[in-house]
Amino acid sequence: MSDTNSEWPLWEVFVRSKAGLDHKHCGSLHAADARMAVQMARDVYTRRQEGSSVWVVRSDQIIASDPGDKDMYFDPAEDKVYRHPTFYKLPDSVDHM
Amino acid sequence: MQASIKIPAAPELAYLLRLADTCLISGQRLGEWCGHGPILEEDIALSNMALDLIGQARALLTLAGQRSGQCGGQGYDEDQLAFLRDEGDYRNPTLAELPRGDFAFTILRNLMLSTWLKLMWQRLGESSDAELAAIAGKALKEARYHQQHAADWAVRLGDGSDESRRRCVVALDRLWPYTPELFEDDAVDAAAVAADLGPAWAQLREPWLAEIGEVLGEAKLAVPPAPTFRSSGKSGRHSEHMGYLLAEMQYLQRAYPGGAW
Amino acid sequence: MYTQAMDTLREEGGQPVLRTAEEAALQQRFDQRIDAGDFIEAKDWMPENYRKTLLRQISQHAHSEIVGMLPEGNWITRAPTLKRKAILLAKVQDEGGHGLYLYAAAETLGTSRDQMLDALHTGKAKYSSIFNYPTLTWADVGAIGWLVDGAAIMNQVPICRCSYAPYARAMVRICREESFHQRQGYDSLLVMMKNGTEAQKAMVQDAVNRWWWPCLMMFGPPDDQSPNSAQGMRWGIKRVSNDTLRQKFVDAAAQQAAVLGVTFPDPDLRWNEESQHWDYGAIDWSEFWRVVGGDGPCNRERLADRVQAWEEGEWVREAALAHARKSELKEAA
């Protein structure tokens, strides 16, 4: 039987596909330490030139919003239509503003 | 059965083949780990390194095959050179052909060879042979990563558990006697230096010892005493292991003469 | 790379037992989301049998990937050219990567990778039976790429739209990476059939003869013997029936075989003008169940290889953790 305490911790991997873009979550992996996690991320997730930079973070260090709070957190933004440029109808001559 | 090809006895060609075969045979050994690594992530990492080494070998063998035609012999492609030479015409130092061993053995050999290759590629970047210099420029990036990967693991294993430390000591003891061959000069080196093709292997000795010593120090592993044994793979006299490696590697090319792959 | 209709071995997905009104409300909301084509994320509420069924399927899929490294890996040191060696190594390595993505997807359901590996190593978990067949010649490597990967891709593409988002995301990545796997296999066989020697052509035909029927079995038992998982369909874990996928595979393979210049070992294989499909002969399901049950040519060897690699790696994994702990203590000091 495997002892769960002997398992390497889980890390989340974020890859920047090219300079100027955001790092994007692309998966996870197991590694014994941070340096190894970065190297493993390179070896596992950038085999096809997918990246120019990687971030790793221990999965247990991520704090996520509660799915049960989804309505309360995110629905209130729904009716704030005036935050979007398309809300404002301007004359054609100046509409490229 | 497909017959062996003949290799002209030009020192420049031998110089290229020594390097090419070091990459080829190391790649062959590292490839043995695929599917059998200690953990999935590391399995993938080892295969990446094997792929880099095979890529380097292909570039160098292609170049060597062209040079063979230019120095009085027949021209060959990468596969004729990789699969159809007699054992005595393979020029890798013996260190590269030793069986893969356990993970400690593989890591410490990778550390030795990747450090050596890194130092070699750095110098070959200034080769008078522009094609060789171009190959070196690409390979240097790969070797730097291989060295970092091996060095980090050497420290983890050397300064990890009692068991990992014990295995490192055993592996180091077995590997170290094969290292002097990486730094011995002969007529091949003299010709390479004279033609500005690349460095004499002895020139890599001091920086190699310095870098290896630093990593072993961090890994709390003692540098073994200088061995008196001398291996001779780069002159074509190999260990008992090479015949088995080649029998496996060459099997299809030998068994299916005139085949298309 | 490879799924087989393994989940048909033991159908789950009957009506869940509901205990409280609150759970019933959660169940109803879950069902609505599924029916609306919503994705379910790891932290969302999900019925226990959904979690269990997914965990079993994803972990079996992951096990199939890493056991699947072995038959082809058998030829890495013997590949005939450096180009083929590099291609094969990259492909087998990809399978390891796919196993990794899938284990990660399964881990989001609350079971560790070590626990899943333990189930594999102790024989509690299944993997695709196709890997219990041996790779006897170099042409087997090409045949696996063409036929086994070809069958797997047909099984896998629909799962990219699976309701469980971590699984769907892993499958999107896997399908993208795998697009070269089938092509390289076919290409390898094509070169031998078009430019090779008679001995090579015979090697290719022999490999195709041995892999054809096991590949047809990869799609699982016929629909009338496979209690159709309405639940699996609804959850999007299973989207197309076994026989439909199998027919699609036969239709594609028959045409590819003609271009290649090989035949399949089935005297009943013929074009049916009326149905506009290829008819094929009866599959020997007793062989399928025998191999699934553990008595294939390589079941014991494959599992023993995995167990050996894992056990030989134990000291490595422990040492890395021991070193990490030492480093943390040093930094804290």
Measured between the Cα atoms of the first and last residue of chain C, the distance is 47 Å
Give the low-confidence spans of chain B: none
Number of domains of chain B: 1
CATH superfamily of chain B: Ferritin, core subunit, four-helix bundle
Q: What class do helices, strands and sheet pairing of chain B give? A: mainly alpha
- Give the C-level CATH assignment of chain B: Mainly Alpha
Estimate the mean pLDDT confidence of chain C.
92
Which word captures the global form of chain C? globular
Number of strands of chain B: 0
Order of helices and strands of chain C: HHHHHHHHHHHEEHHH
Strand content of chain B: under 5%
CATH topology of chain B: Ferritin
What does the largest sheet of chain C look like? 2 strands, antiparallel
Q: Explain this structure to me?
A:
The complex is a heterotrimer of chains A (97), B (261) and C (333). Chain A is 18% helix and 22% strand. By secondary structure, chain A is α+β, with helices and mostly antiparallel strands. Chain A has a single domain (10-83), classed as Phenylacetic acid degradation B (Ubiquitin-like (UB roll)), CATH 3.10.20. Chain A has a three-stranded antiparallel sheet, covered by helices on one side. In chain A, strand 1 and strand 2 (23-30) form a beta hairpin. The longest helix of chain A is centred in the middle third of the chain and has 12 residues, at 34-45. Chain B has nine helices and no strands. Chain B has helices spanning 11-31, 40-70, 78-83, 103-124, 130-158, 162-175, 187-194, 205-218, 240-255. In chain B, helix 2 runs antiparallel to helix 5 and helix 4 runs antiparallel to helix 8 (205-218). Chain C is 64% helix and 2% strand. With 333 residues, chain C is mainly α. The radius of gyration of chain C is 22 Å and the shape is globular. Chain C has a two-stranded antiparallel sheet with strand order 1-2. Residues 5-14 of chain C have low confidence and may be disordered. Chain C contains 14 helices and two strands. Chain C has helices spanning 21-35, 48-67, 69-73, 82-107, 113-121, 138-156, 165-177, 179-195, 198-217, 230-235, 242-260, 285-295, 299-312, 314-332; strands spanning 270-272, 277-279. The chains are: A alpha+beta (97), B mainly alpha (261), C mainly alpha (333). Chains in contact: A-B, A-C, B-C. The interface between A and C is medium-sized, with 22 and 28 residues.
